[in-house]
Amino acid sequence: MPAAIALQTQVAVVRRGDRRLLVASENYAERVEFNLDDMPAVPRGHWSDYVAGVVRLMERELGDLCGANLLIHGMCRRERD
Question: Global pTM?
Fold first, then answer.
């Protein structure tokens, strides 16, 4: 998503054969797992809330998604140079 700040997010995605979403963050050195059929109803105040919100929006627009393993890395553009 475009933003007027010097941040960048990279996501590697591998499709799964089920409806589970396994999300790993290199920035937080932790993993979170979601069941796409039972997504959290309210934010938890955790970095994974953003992922859950994007998934809910995508499913509303595109219909049911398949499961996936995601590896997320966020950085300032200066780190990339």
Answer: 0.78
- For strand 30-35 and strand 20-25, is the pairing parallel, antiparallel, or unpaired? antiparallel
6: Cβ–Cβ under 8 A, 6 or more apart, which residues? 76, 77, 78
Query: Above pLDDT 70, what percent of the chain?
Result: 88
Environment class of 45 (CB within 10 Å of its CB; exposed 0-12, middle 13-18, buried 19+): exposed
Structure confidence by residue, pLDDT tens digits, 15-48: 999 999 999 999 898 999 999 999 998 999 999 9
> Token digits for 55?
């998934």
Tokens representing 65?
Answer: 């998604």
